[in-house]
Design a protein that fits this description.
544 residues; alpha+beta; Beta-Lactamase; Heat Shock Protein 90; 6-stranded antiparallel β-sheet; 5-stranded antiparallel β-sheet; 15 helices; 16 strands; 22% strand
């Protein structure tokens, strides 16, 4: 005979099914389910655990019957050990008279209310386990087989509702992702300034993957700088002026592969001092790539919520944003490079003009003065006049030599007429004669001419490097090696001087920034190896 209590329970089950299937919020679905489970079984406490993607623990835990004060006293929600873990590993209903008597029982944390009778039912759909329903402390004794059947019906309804809610959230999430990607794409069309674009990428990505901190690191010289950051700890991160190449970020840049780190503490490549300063525990590292070359790294730390680990979906989304950021960086660099190239090209044109005027006009004028002085010398008389004319002639000769030297420095005629190697040979000879430093030049670049813009760049860099040797190195010997292999020209310049401390010496004081700018115009690479008392090696690689 069906009692009024049974009718009430069935009505509650039907009403709950209608309610949870009309609920689109996953959290709302879970709360309705646990409340309904407690009502239809007369349980004092109920809970629902959502199984994580790995299938070994719980990613969400929703309770019913406990006050906020009790939950705060208990602390962190369970992760799926003990009795709760039994249903995760073996998805079958479980009824117990006393929880403490089960061999897998691990007891309760301080402040937890006493619980004895127990009913656990898995939430499954098409063979996929979504989670489990847990009920304890039934009013009047142990849970019955009828309770188990009712909760099983509720669990079946719950599985469909949970799947619908997840699909809705996934669709909503993809809509937001598409909107953010379109926003970044539109910004690429109308914005050439790099900083605003990178700020937009970090802000939108942090919101979409729920990260505590997102940043973009770009290489500068032998280190990396934080070009943009958003979230908790952004100021601390940007305050770190440079990241070393041997950091985790630098390693990812070198390898050019995305990496997801579930525990920064356990990764030997992570700079633990930086991680502690940021309070970071997990990481997501995605390289920015342009023309198949890594040009930076997108970094995210700590997913918001109880589980701070990032998912595969987070990684894929970060890679999509990295693609947009790569385009922004590459486009901005191209614009800056073109502007710099025009400036340098204008400088070279001006140097050619000055060199031509100094060589042709000023040089000829001084030569004419010499010829005029010779005539005066032949016509004049007296020792004083003769001596004065001799001094004047010597001054003019010295001036003419200085003018010719200046013309060579501005734009060596040999570079235009004969190419890079003869121009460097003349430069090395002039440098050796004026400084007393021995220069050994070896060139293995074949017979064909190097492109003119590459010739100018290499010549200026060698010229600047030799100037640094005279000013700072206190060297006795310099060697210059040029090697052409495939489509790459490599220049290695070594001296046996005193070297210098790269941390203590400002790049501007020895012209390194200007040298790097010239190399950047050709997508080249400039590296410097030096130490106090060990000389200096400058290596230049320029693609042709």
């Amino acid at each position: 005979m069906v009692t009024q209590h049974d009718t009430s329970r069935l009505r509650a089950l039907v009403e709950t099914g209608i309610a949870i299937n009309s609920e689109l919020s996953l959290d709302g679905v879970l709360e309705r389910i646990v409340e309904a489970a407690a009502r239809v079984t007369d349980a004092r406490y109920a809970a629902l655990g959502v199984i994580d993607q790995g299938g070994s623990g719980l990613e969400r835990f929703v309770t019913y019957g406990m006050s906020d004060e009790v939950q705060a006293e208990i602390g962190d929600p369970p992760h799926g050990r003990g009795i709760l873990g039994v249903l995760i590993s073996d998805a079958r209903p479980l009824r117990l008279h006393d929880l403490s008597e089960h061999p897998r029982s691990v007891g309760f944390p301080p402040g937890h209310p006493p619980m004895r009778s127990f009913l656990g039912v898995p939430i499954r759909l098409r063979g996929v386990a979504y989670g489990n329903l847990y009920l304890t402390e039934k009013d009047g004794g142990d849970f019955t087989e009828e309770d188990e059947e009712l909760v099983a019906l509720l669990a079946a309804q719950a599985a469909v509702a949970v799947e619908n809610a997840r699909l809705y959230e996934s669709a909503t999430g993809w809509s937001q992702q598409l909107e953010s990607l379109n926003e970044v794409g539109a910004a690429l069309v109308g914005e050439l300034e790099l900083d605003p674009l990178l700020d937009l990428v970090t802000t939108r990505l942090r919101q979409l993957i729920g990260a505590r901190l997102v940043a973009i690191a770009l290489p500068t010289g032998d280190a990396l700088r934080i070009a943009a950051a958003d979230g908790d700890g952004a100021e601390d991160l940007t305050a770190i002026e440079l990241l070393t190449r041997d950091s985790k970020t630098g390693r990812v840049l070198e390898r050019g592969r995305s990496e997801r780190v579930d525990s920064l503490l356990e990764d030997p490549e992570v700079n633990q001092d930086v991680a502690r300063r940021l309070g970071a525990t997990t990481g997501l590292y995605v390289p920015l790539r342009a023309r198949e070359q890594p040009i930076g790294v997108l970094v995210a730390h700590d997913k918001m919520g109880r589980d701070q680990r990032f998912t595969s979906s987070d990684l894929r989304l970060a890679e999509q944003f990295a693609l947009r950021a790569s385009i922004a960086v590459d486009l901005s660099r191209r614009v800056a490079r073109d502007a710099l190239r025009r400036v340098v090209a204008g400088q070279e044109v001006e140097r050619r003009r000055l060199a031509r005027e100094l060589h042709d006009e000023t040089g000829q004028a001084l030569t004419s003065i010499l010829l005029g002085l010779r005539a005066v010398d032949e016509a004049a008389s007296g020792e004083a006049v003769t001596k004065a004319l001799a001094d004047l002639r010597e001054l003019v000769v010295a001036t003419l030599q200085d003018v010719r030297r200046l013309a060579v420095q501005l734009r060596p005629k040999a570079l235009d007429d004969f190419g890079l190697v003869p121009a460097l040979e003349r430069l090395a000879q002039t440098f050796s004669e004026s400084s007393g430093i021995k220069v050994d030049l070896e060139a293995r670049i074949g017979q064909s001419r190097v492109p003119p813009e590459v010739e100018s760049t290499v010549y200026r860099l060698v010229q600047e490097a030799l100037t640094n040797v005279v000013k700072h190195a206190e060297a006795n010997n310099v060697s210059i090696l040029l090697v052409r292999r495939d489509a790459m020209l490599t220049v290695v310049l070594e001296d046996d001087g005193r070297g210098f401390d790269t941390e203590a010496v400002k790049a501007d004081s020895i012209g390194l920034e200007g040298m790097r700018e010239r190399v950047t115009l050709h997508d080249g690479r400039l590296t410097i190896e030096t130490a106090k008392g060990a000389g200096t090696t400058l290596r230049l690689e320029v693609p042709m």
